[in-house]
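Aim 2 progress update. The chain analyzed this quarter is reproduced below.
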Amino acid sequence: MALTLSPSDESTLVVLAIVFLFLARRTYRMVRGMRYSAARLFVYSGLYVLLFVLFAFITIYAATSAWGMYAESLVLPYGAVVAAAAVLSTPFVRRIVRFERREDGREYYRLPWVVPVLSLVLFVVRFTVELFIFGLASTTSFFLPTSLPTVLLLVLIVIDLLFGVSVGLLLGRAVGVRSAHEELASAPAEPPRSPPLPEA
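Predicted structure tokens:
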């Protein structure tokens, strides 16, 4: 049976595809080397924070009918996961980031692929799991059914927390890259090397 999409579904899928392509492009550029900009670092991380807040709201809203006011207590572990990942990853990123000045005269930084690729994969996993469990209507409406079994709620919470780890990693990336750049800028320049003395 052919899948029929409403105009609303099609519009939402187009938006999701654009967001995915944007994030995929940014992921590729982070691995290959991105031009350093403190503003872009935090704007990009802020986009992931907004997505995480949206996912958290959707899950907590769906859990409210099953768990009542206790669902609001999920805010604490959601926030703690992001904060812990950011705090732990900041010094690690500060040590592994590499800066280089290219032919255009601008500074670029490079990071191992793990952090950006993990964030992108968990973003895709979150929507994919929701699609297979609840169907296209729930995925494109950004609202889940309000009568979900506890097992499904726990699955969504675990996936959200994993995505929260990746969001914290990206925040740690932003802080770590900026800290490393400030340290590099404040470090004294190496004195020029003297030419070797002629042999006697």
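The mean pLDDT is 78. The first strand starts at residue 34 and ends at 35. These observations will guide the mutagenesis experiments scheduled for the next reporting period.
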